[in-house]
Amino acid sequence: MYSLARNLLFKLAPETAHELSIDLIGAAGRLGVSGALCKAPQSLPVNVMGIQFPNPVGLAAGLDKNGEAILGLAQMGFGFIEVGTVTPRPQPGNPKPRLFRIPEKQAIINRMGFNNHGVDYLLQRVQAANYQGVLGINIGKNIDTPVERAEEDYLICLEKVYNHASYVTVNVSSPNTPGLRSLQFGESLINLLEALRRKQEDLTAEWGKRVPLAIKIAPDMTDEEVCQVAKILRETGMDAVIASNTTLDKTEVEHLAFGNEAGGLSGAPVRHKSTHVVSVLAEELKGELPIIAVGGITEGQHAAEKIAAGASLVQIYTGFMYQGPRLIREAIDHIAQLPR
Length: 340
What we know:
Elements: H1 2-9, H2 14-31, E1 46-48, E2 51-53, E3 57-59, H3 70-74, E4 80-86, E5 99-102, E6 107-110, H4 119-129, E7 134-139, H5 150-161, E8 167-171, H6 186-207, E9 213-217, H7 223-235, E10 240-243, E11 264-267, H8 271-285, E12 291-294, H9 300-309, E13 313-316, H10 318-323, H11 326-336
Parallel strand pairs: 3-4, 3-13, 4-7, 7-8, 8-9, 9-10, 10-12, 12-13
Antiparallel strand pairs: 1-2, 5-6, 6-11
């Protein structure tokens, strides 16, 4: 059934298909029928960041930026849902076209640019969904906020989403907001994370609960840079790291249609790159900080591969668009076969 739906959707422009899919999944979720259309995955509970996850396979941020299809997506079997990236104010994102399929490689290039309806709209949708599962909210900065003032945007978003999120992801690694990736390094990263940690402590006291902070990083770093980031995450008291965002390396797709489009590449071509970052992080962190792995999971065994490399959880997005809900079940099944 999914193959038929995908073939029909792939006849539409990518962004049109994306928007239609979110509308349909959202409607199915409100009607409570998404689960009836998908075979339920096996239970495989895991505790990460002090949170009990029903299974270790989640949806990565970017698919449901505005929280409009939370229930429908959750009913498909995900162990957790991450929405966003959301910014303090609504913004249209980059000019269209900005989303490109590369089906030969089960890949996508996007230069969306944090298009979203703003944090207040997202929270309206989250409250309307009343989702009782694990919900991550991914936060970023507005494109017209100077990088040197990015901290202000992250703090605004953190304060607003804190009481509505199971965990909060700080996105400093999208390649589609000018200057954003500079926040991943050195004093810029230290200053941002220290400010977020102080705000987290204040909000913990205010709400009587501690909501973990995860930092999402890029795959386009040297091993030395990854180790430096890991050290900063440990020293600033972050709760998890997500590896990784999209890559700017188009080597595997540059010979194909749309392969040279500007933007971040996701899907199968980023698999080995992201898994390598997971391995480097695991070696450096030595279990002190959990790793959430994302990037290139198009088969169940790829999810198990990332857990074996040192991740505690995995997320899927592009693979889900190509393979559908069965990828969730296959990923859980392969992870379950790993030695405990």
